[in-house]
């Protein structure tokens, strides 16, 4: 399955957008040891901007940059949002309220707890009626989401925005579901092959380990954040390599050839 990458977005520790992040992924600039809070989403009206949480701001920052990079109208793009953890802080707050006995949960917390919250804010912010999909596939959410978005683009014959994002979960869940730092990336995929890079996706049976990076701290980020498992592919795109990248995609694996 062949697809073009027209635009990219990136946000994470020491990675303040694709333009700055490219130099880090190429190994030209050291990775700064700093968490970067994502900007408030300019697309949302003030009331919605106040209601949305950090994980939504994270996803929308990467999505907006990818659309600008691709020079495409966000309202016209179908989208696929993939996250393993969802809004962990909100889920933790709701469970804590239940355990405390009061059981009082604010409507804002409740509607931020659903898995498609970021996708919903995105469509509201841009007045979009294009299809929007939200999925979660544990540690393989990036690879499964990429395959889902590419398939939609090829079958429907139109560009699709793909966004992958995850942030740490506080509280008791966070002690067993360990996620370090917040990370998001986004790609605008074009079925016509237009873009900065062409990807050829092939799904295979049997598990294979993810490819690794030469920069240890990026490997650590990829190991402890499901969305950051995209980093080997993003690094290959940043370098402009004609190569291939393997991604675990349970129950099999995804091989992505770049040209």
TrEMBL record:
Residues 32-241 form the Beta-ketoacyl synthase-like N-terminal domain. InterPro entries: Ketoacyl_synth_N, Thiolase-like. It comes from the Bacteria. GO terms for molecular function: acyltransferase activity. This is Beta-ketoacyl synthase-like N-terminal domain-containing protein.
